[in-house]
């Protein structure tokens, strides 16, 4: 199976060598589309490929990515960002899959974008990563662009790591959405969801609430609706509208079985009010395994480490010190070197010794 890897870059000199060193180990063709670099990104790219193109930036990631796809000559195309990274184990998995020469339309891989102190992923989700080089498999939406899947879908046990080395402009996406609004551009339900997210990230809580609640009345992807409930609740909580925050979290149960991210958030609010026994109830429900193929955003720690860590604290506040020790030990099974959990284990254990 021949594969073209397509990337759009702009001032990515700090990470471009890193990702292209990975890409050259599995891609038959590398396509780089530069959207206006003023550093030496293009010079770095030319060390790996002679297919380096310029594209005038028009505030539309889909147009830039689709232009890159149009330059590809192989049967399948893959996209990456300049600050992505693939370790050797996952590169080997990609090569093994390509060597099978299996017919498919869209291949999904795990995208990990946050990590703990031991470099283990704490936030991940599935993304369409390799698609057939056909016109129907092109990006839509100017920001948070996506390829609408169809045909035969495959889910690979491959993780792409998103490893930023410098912060992004926090207002970039919101500024683009604002310009689109001013032009009267129609927002699909998905675009409205991500627009609300940008308002939330930039602490425009009142406006975010309006957009989230409007979005929740639309036909849309269930996982995004559950995430909208979580984010909207945090907007309400930040505005000290606690009852509405709780109601928004509970409303997520209307869409599907409770997600551990929601349950941990409910428990956190209850802990803030010193309602330890109620918090314990929700934390116990949160323990489990995430459905990584759901397409939703997964906060991995909410399925083990966080519930156990907070269960220990709740039991400590209830003076159930043996239970506190038990739960913090369970938390440490997820993160054996966690400094905070290790300190808490010693702290909780000290109360058992005192009461002997």
Keywords for this entry:
single chain, 356 residues, alpha/beta, nine-stranded mixed β-sheet, two-stranded antiparallel sheet, 14 helices, 17% strand
**H/I helix tally:** 14
Helix content: 40-55%
Along the chain, the helix and strand elements come as EHEHEHEEHEEEEEHHHHHHHEHHH
Termini gap? 67 Å
The main β sheet shows up as:
9 strands, mixed
Number of strands: 11
Morphology: globular
- Helix and strand composition category: alpha/beta
Low-confidence stretches: none
Strand content: 15-25%
Rg, rounded, reads 23 Å
Give the averaged pLDDT, no decimals. 96
Could you write a compact summary of the structure shown?
With 356 residues, the protein is α/β, with parallel strands linked by helices.
What does the secondary structure layout of this molecule look like, with pairings?
Layout: E1 3-9, H1 16-23, E2 29-34, H2 41-45, E3 52-54, H3 61-70, E4 76-80, E5 84-85, H4 88-100, E6 106-115, E7 121-132, E8 139-140, E9 146-147, E10 153-162, H5 172-182, H6 189-201, H7 205-215, H8 222-238, H9 242-251, H10 260-272, H11 276-286, E11 298-299, H12 305-317, H13 321-334, H14 339-354
Parallel strand pairs: 1-2, 1-4, 2-3, 6-10
Antiparallel strand pairs: 4-7, 5-10, 6-7, 7-11, 8-9
